[in-house]
Each structure stands twice: as C-alpha cells, then as structure tokens.
C-alpha cells in the first residue's frame, strides 16, 4: 500500500506545475505536435520537451510519431484509473 501512496504523490508532484497543467488542458482538446504546443507558451523548445518528458514518464500523456512529427495526447486510461482511487 505504501508504494501506491508514493506513486500517487509523484503524480501529484508532476501535476503541481502550471505549465504542465496548461499542457494537459491543451491536450484535452486532442493530440498536438510539439510545434503547436510551443506556440502556446513563451518557453524554449528544450523546456517544453522537459515538461513533456515528465508527463510521459509518469504515464499522463502518450507520444506517437507521425512522419517527422511527434504528437502528444492524454493517456485517458491512466488518468481515469488514477482518479478512481479517490472515489472511496
């Protein structure tokens, strides 16, 4: 059970950043490539990549390559399961 709490705390830590919350909000409308995400922020591409990697590492988003572009989308299966933990 303790490991489960540690994992939940890690997810909340990742979600505790305003830029990552905004990324999630943007992706809630559908998959986006990095180039489109970058237009929404006044940060550098490496900084955006850092935030995307953290979200992907923690299973909050998926990345898929289409041609030369990498698209990111929300991992609804994980997010739904994560928030189910708080129902009881």
From TrEMBL:
Entry keyword set: DNA-binding, Transcription, Transcription regulation
Q: Which InterPro entries match?
A: ArsR-like_HTH, HTH_ArsR_DNA-bd_dom, HTH_MetalResp_TranReg, WH-like_DNA-bd_sf, WH_DNA-bd_sf
- Which GO MF terms are attached to this record? DNA binding; DNA-binding transcription factor activity
| Pfam families associated with the record | HTH_5
| Domain of life from the UniProt record | Bacteria
Record keywords: Lipoprotein included? Answer: no
Residue ranges annotated for the HTH arsR-type domain, each copy included: 1-88
Protein name as it appears in the record = Arsenical resistance operon repressor
Task: Please name the source species.
Answer: Haploplasma axanthum
The gene designation is: arsR
């Amino acid at each position: 059970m303790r490991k489960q709490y540690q994992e939940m705390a890690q997810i909340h830590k990742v979600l505790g950043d305003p830029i990552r919350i905004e990324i999630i909000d943007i992706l809630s409308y559908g998959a986006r490539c990095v180039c489109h995400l970058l237009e929404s922020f006044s940060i550098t591409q490496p900084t955006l990549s850092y935030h995307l990697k953290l979200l992907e590492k923690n299973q909050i988003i998926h990345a898929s390559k289409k041609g030369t572009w990498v698209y990111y989308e929300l991992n609804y299966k994980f997010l739904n399961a994560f928030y189910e933990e708080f129902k009881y």
